[in-house]
Amino acid sequence: MPELPDGDPAPKDGTLPDISMDRPFSAYVHVPFCQVRCGYCDFNTYTSTELGPGATPREYDSQLLGEIALAGQVLDGGKPLSTIFFGGGTPTYLQASQLAHILGVLELVFGFEDGAEITTEANPETVDAEYLRSLKDAGFTRVSVGMQSAATHVLATLDRLHTPERVPMVINWAREAGLSASVDLIYGTPGESLDDWRHSLAEAIAMNPDHVSAYGLGIEPGTKMGQQVKRGILPDTDPDDLAAKYEIADEMLSTAGYSWYEVSNWSKPGHQSRHNMAYWRNSNWWGFGPGAHSHINGTRFWNVKHPRAWAERLKAGESPAAAREILSPQERAEEDIMLGIRLAEGLPDTAGLAGPGQALDRAELAKRRHKTMILAHDGLLDPSELTGGRMVLTLNGRLLADTVIRQLWD
Ligand SMILES: C[S@@+](CC[C@H](N)C(=O)[O-])C[C@H]1O[C@@H](n2cnc3c(N)ncnc32)[C@H](O)[C@@H]1O
Ligand code: SF4
To answer: Where are the beta strands (DSSP E) in 40-188?
Structure first.
């Protein structure tokens, strides 16, 4: 698993330098349990054999209450939540009643805005019709299903536990329960042909979900797959293959009525993930659970990673934050660009050049305009949007988003 950054020490009582709540407020709830660890996965998650007393799924909802109460105190009651996202790990490894319990306490402490978006991730083999109905009854509005692929051999390489046939059943149950449905796909798995990928997209589209996320497989050194690639047992991903598959995804999804709104995310009109948008617009969120990251008004903090260490801190009445980082105005501007440029709505071409109420420096503005013209000339920024004063990535720009970000800052 990737190490957490070092950061500065975080106060034991969890206090923050600025708790004004003038941006929308979201909650992320991390559930760090999985039945098996998929060979490619680098997330902070554990199987039952890796955990013992003091860190079990059964007691997890009760343990989370400690952090929710702490956040309520630190934020002086905060404000009603506009989006809530349960991610993992496998949130649906918990009982539906446990997820309902956690949600109920979040509502008690902060309240929910009218029409709040409340999502959980779900592995296909962990939910059935009754489970999904219970989620809807508890107040969930949305479920994000980890489909990954419709090719059996790809699912096997990824160590997934479900069959391709399970996913349409889950999407139907979700729809019958009244939940909005999203599917997650992964492309670029070793052994996946272009036709396998087209087939996965066609199967996903045939289920008519409201939202699709498609991620290029990332092979991390600390994972089982990372080791297999290092030893030559599996081939590494090929950037040309990843680019071709991204283009196929964009083509097939847009033909089927899905528009991209972020580099890896497409949706039917009105079904963008508002929670994801909150991250990309750099608004405020509290991440609950082991290893979860938070951002409140330019202060980023992150919790200790191990579920037992996290629970022990809370039991001792201490904040579970491992460390924090207070961003300078320059760092905040850099972050705003890094996140915002990935969105279809793009950014004003002056983004990051002056803080609120500050005058634009003419020399800086001229430099920025020069860079954006070169990026448009190279086919990475949309020239017609640029004429209107906005930086919006083209299809090629989406494939090279990191290059665009680097060039804007160089
Ligand atoms: C961490 S998982 C949690 C949800 C759930 N446990 C699942 O597996 O569906 C969230 C999503 O991250 C994506 N993901 C995880 N590891 C990845 C990797 N190494 N490369 C690309 N996508 C990855 C997968 O699409 C997955 O659906
Ligand atoms: S089920 Fe999801 S979170 Fe768990 S190991 Fe697999 S990809 Fe990671």
So the answer is: 81-88, 112-122, 142-148, 180-187
